[in-house]
């Protein structure tokens, strides 16, 4: 029996772009010295990727590592893998001053798909979408709540918010993507 | 000196001469070399201070020095809300003194300031807010301030355009001050200026105070863009510029200058007959006699002297009010502006002696000092004339050091 | 009369007729019309009444500057008052009505004000209506309000939606006339990211109407090519129907896109508010023609010369059959030519200048039109419509020389550059003597974040009134990339300023010369203001209301301040302008609110169990952005009953509280203990792993700000619980100290509030419920009071804290949020046999009050220090420092007279009302009744079956047993005795089982 | 509507992504300080019309506090820098001095 459910249980809406809650995702906050060798190893162990550069996310299949601040990373793994990953990280960082916290259940994840997906974000985030770099994760706000997003595939953005406001964020996305609202 | 009285009869008489014979409302004198007292700042508080120095204490050798045009500071740009439903004793005392003086101000000054005690509602939208307002009602009853708590049905009756059910924050009732309201802000400054001028005081506009002169720890006068002007007593009443003046005199005030914004809609026929403040969602609204909805909200969070604010505060306010009064969505914003307000550490004013003998400050009214103009002037005049006043007792600039705050955010959150 | 001409009209499509109504009357226009052109085309010149005198008002202008022609547009949820007809595109089925009159537009009772105009000069109300005192509010004010106010109040909820969008550009060019297009071409070629926005539905601005040629082509054609070129540039964005509303600091430009005003109900958002961030802004906003001040210049049929030209050329509408032109410059002669071209009569051109010999006047003379130089208008004839004009010498006092019959007057007093956006952020102006206008002073622009100019004015907005100059200016300002377009237009002789017509007009005429049409401000009013000492232009504005109407003085300001300068005998620049403020023209409040309405008005935070609460009768209470069940209503049950039922259930058996909203912050690192010792008033570094401790936090100013239970998770890791409202605030507070003060301390924090769903299981049967779930050992011995354990319960990963806020045996259990709902369901199932009862915040509040536990926000209000609440036991004496400690040492904080926490018990068992104060004898120096305490929490206790309360009382703890008076409503006084605040289970036996 | 560049992550953040935090470089006075010192630290904050140093948090971003030098009369931003310093960097001070010759310098 799967007792774990995501905040909106995968609800989606189709307007000029398709917006959907993307279900559960393993997420781990790691704080520590990003320059240390142990940190590099820890990330490698957790995601198989290199340590992301400032403001970047490195994605490898269903795993990713994102730079959140000068002393913080976000590790993304499949939901089921979160606990093992926490353990792996803890092990790799043992002896270093660090903090590892499982935040998988504290977040909601959304995808925005379509040729005009960027327009949905243009309405909600004070971000210059045209200058969003390849592999950039942008932490910002979506209307009145904190959010982070990145381009996860061609014509697809992934956006992460806090779990408690998932309904609000979905409301925003659905309204912004409503047919007729295309920015010509 | 004297002045010709204003009345309907005078207007009729004026009409016969095509209104060619009206005299100046105030003189435009050159500064004298020395005054008994100088007030810096011809805003409402400065002018009222001068007025009561003359009226209550017979001190009329007074100059009010203004860097721009009189009434052009916050007095000329506020949302004109008048109320005295404050929680703490010292506040309730001075604001109620002011409110009661507003009742007769037009007659006292022979200038119609259009005091309109149309009723003021502070909406209770959370249980917590309700408890805070009920507490205020009980305090007010003991302070001699007439307020009461009313339920949602009565709110709806007073404000038919209100959305009682939320959806987010249902209106649980309101703290109601029946004799709170509004007044014509410019007229308050003009009426006082006219009365001061008639008493022989000099309102000196377009003259900036650029320095403060002291001798042996005592004030001797001020440097201005029109030269040195001597005085025995100096009142600094410059709101957003209080810190700048204090620095000239060599002391520091617990004041930060922040932009507060307001806006008006295009005029419409009467839509709302009372003043409504919704502090949970941060917005307040009333309708002027000309028909605009007068709307205000919160301050910016950073020091600023530009009289311009950040647009997102306008958005927040407007969102809140559209939620509270859905019909305003299809009205239009006509104009927005900002003023620089003087915020203290406890959001209450300072009426105080200072480290310099003969210098007094009146500032810190922040987002809410229009309503207090006459009371503040009354008290400040007493402080300057006598050295103390029961109304200013608790508002000393030294209270922060003692930890003796007068914190109004306790019940209302904001203080407009 | 005004009519639709049979030929021409560059903007209308005659194959697409559109029906609309005005005051119920059916009318017809064409696609491409504005409401203004459609009304004029249907011979509707009278469109409204003025503000003060209720004078008849007709259309004066053809664009954003229109002061008069405002209508109510639409119906029901789409009704909008004060719609300016000159900037509203016609759509099929539009319903319009005129404003500010009763009973009808033609017969308006309010017009008696006009007859009494002599008694209503500027500021008359400041001088009268003072007696009797109550009369202002009850008699005069209602009359004033009813007769002012223009449009009707909407009554229905808005049916449309609105949205925001964020835009970014190196350069935003405002205004799509030939100057804006030229600049866009140059900047576009340079590869800059350019936005070009235009408020109307058309590119090209004035040039096509004014007969300008560019690069050898008629302006229309050049514009079309320019737009096509720009459309091909990927780095250029073009937007029509988008008005730059305001320019704010650091290049923040607000642009108001009217997406669907002309296609209402088509499913698109009505307005989109662009929040642009521009590297630089160019204002190519053109210029606005000024009216002339002559008596009767407000009679319907008197229009701006350029507007008359626009109506004829753009929409094939003739405002009149016989149009007299009144001017002080050559440009207005273009209007004469346009009218003649359309086959309409121009009986005369009245030119105030001594001579008019330029190419344009000569061309007009050549067509046989009388040109009366050195003349002026003495007075306009007609009331609701111009019937003629009385001509006089400009240099005289207005003696009539002749009357010329006409049904329209086209006036031009010269042009004023549109400098609003330039000025919004402090850009300064300079007076141009030659053209009698204020123009942007390029040496004093508004500056941006880097301190450099953030805006440049170009084209006629920069005072370059001639097409050739406008284009050259724009090309150069935008970097001169590519060849410069060359514009050619007719030569013009200098204009000559005319501020009053005729020069020597006496008071009677001046009282009929309108400056501000909407607000009824006349030349005489401005002069009166000056006479009375309202000399600053800002005083004059406020005293007369000049420029304060919905057009914000676009037509009246310059004329008004010229009159003021004259009255004060000073030069115009010495008078200066009033402050320009956003928006350029009014923007909808709906657009400013954006998408934030209804469900997405504000974020609503939900716990994982939220939906369960919703369907099980939750009576919600907003707590910050969360919504928590206050109690759960069963069918037929009132709130009070539900709360009491919940409390009894917990005291007798077991209840569940969704405590997920409590803040949870991990604090970790070698210096974490030391850090927490600074944060909390008590010691946290000494807490043993596996244990919990209640702690208090104060602001640096000494006041209590939050409280909660801290659990030590490991040697270097603590978990801090905060209040629901405190989670983000306290986390921010921790980071603040760590980043800005103790940045060398090794501590990391993480806010994991939302990672966990948390449930309080409270009541004598709590343990049994958990045991039924099965899993970890929750027995007293294995899991003592104020300890936490990790394990599984019913298969759920759980961290269990044995803490109690109710005074009962109680566990708080945290599980992953994603499993929160399942866990809640499991608890309900396991608890069924014990009648497990979900309870809300109110039951929690009452139970903690029965126990004498304080509540942040009730016992504290930002003015209370822990010492006031007798919480000395939670303030470490050993610590040399903690946040707030120094503050608490100040004289007033250590005063023995501070009000302190006690319990209160009414003598009659009733409940003291919330917020009541205890009085002391006498009054203070300000005549206020002395007080000696107040209630902080007060409830009916179903457990004790009587009212209980806590309060702060002067010297309270030393006065046990004394009785206090609490005056409440209707003169009643409640008597309450000071007692110990712990009302229930004083020895804590119930929670420690 | 200010924009400030976060010195930690390089984002040119707009005001709505930031949280203002008042005067920068405050020296904390704890137990043992005089009433005047404590009052100065807590309340009598600098409020100049001109060059000012202040705290901002990149709240809707990396979460870090940083410091900004800004003119309160024109809103010009001279620079931003990390919070972990007790006075403005020398080169920033020099830059400000060059732009505002009458500025009395940091004190
Ligand atoms: C947008 C806004 C809305 C508000 N809404 C309300 C409300 O609804 N109700 C309410 O009660 N209060 C409100 N207030 C607050 C209220 O406006 C002020 O508290 C009050 O007007 C302050 O009056 P004042 O006389 O102290 O200051 P001001 O009116 O600002 O006067 C100070 C004067 O000092 C002059 N000055 C400064 N420096 C010098 C110098 N060096 N030399 C000479 N002169 C100098 C200034 O030019 C100015 O004219 C609001 C304020 C704003 C900005
Ligand atoms: N001969 C004269 O006296 C005289 C006077 C004024 C103008 N002109 C003529 O005007 C033309 C000048 O061209 P130009 O491009 O400088 O001006 P323009 O008036 O042709 O164009 C300005 C454009 O800006 C738009 N606009 C104004 N404010 C706006 C805002 N806030 N947001 C969006 N759009 C806005 C207007 O709708 C208009 O389309 C020439 O043809 C010139 O001959 C002549
Ligand atoms: C109560 C009140 C009502 C106002 N009504 C109007 C109005 O109807 N029309 C208008 O243009 N401005 C109105 N204003 C705004 C003023 O024009 C002006 O913007 C404000 O006093 C600030 O001055 P400033 O913009 O010159 O700096 C009003 C201001 C206040 C305080
Ligand atoms: Zn950052």
What can you tell me about this protein's structure?
Chain A is an alpha+beta fold and 184 residues long. Chain A is 23% helix and 34% strand. In chain B, strands 1, 2, 8, 9, 10, 11, 17 and 18 form an eight-stranded mixed β-sheet that branches. Chain B has an eight-stranded mixed β-sheet with strand order 5-6-4-13-14-15-12-16, with helices on both faces. In chain B, strands 3-7 form a two-stranded antiparallel sheet. Chain C starts with a strand and ends in a 14-residue tail after the last strand. In chain C, 22% of the residues lie in helices and 29% in strands. In chain C, strands 9, 10, 13, 14, 15, 16 and 30 form a seven-stranded mixed β-sheet that branches. In chain C, strands 44-45-46-43-37-47 form a six-stranded mixed β-sheet. A six-stranded antiparallel β-sheet of chain C has the order 49-50-51-48-53-52. Chain C is elongated and about 115 Å long. Among the domains of chain C are: 3-128, Ubiquitin-like (UB roll), CATH 3.10.20.440; 162-287 and 417-488, FAD/NAD(P)-binding domain (3-Layer(bba) Sandwich), CATH 3.50.50; 291-413, FAD/NAD(P)-binding domain, CATH 3.50.50; 498-589, Arc Repressor Mutant, subunit A (Orthogonal Bundle), CATH 1.10.10; 849-887 and 896-979, Elongation Factor Tu (Ef-tu), domain 3 (Beta Barrel). Chain D has a single domain, classed as Folate-binding superfamily (Folate-binding fold, 2-Layer Sandwich), CATH 3.30.2270. Chain D is built from two helices and six strands. Chain D has a four-stranded antiparallel β-sheet, with helices on one face. In chain D, strands 1-2 form a two-stranded antiparallel sheet. Chain D is globular, with a radius of gyration of 14 Å. The chains are: A alpha+beta (184), B alpha/beta (416), C alpha+beta (993), D alpha+beta (107). At the B-C interface, helix 1, helix 3, helix 5, helix 7 and helix 9 of B face strand 7, helix 3, helix 4, helix 14 and helix 15 of C. Strand 16 of chain B pairs antiparallel with strand 34 (587-588) of chain C, so a sheet runs across the interface. The site of zinc ion (ZN) has 8 residues of chain D, from loops. Chain C: Residues 170-422 form the FAD/NAD(P)-binding domain. Chain C: Residues 512-594 form the SoxA A3 domain. Chain C: Keywords: Oxidoreductase. Chain C: This is Sarcosine oxidase subunit alpha.
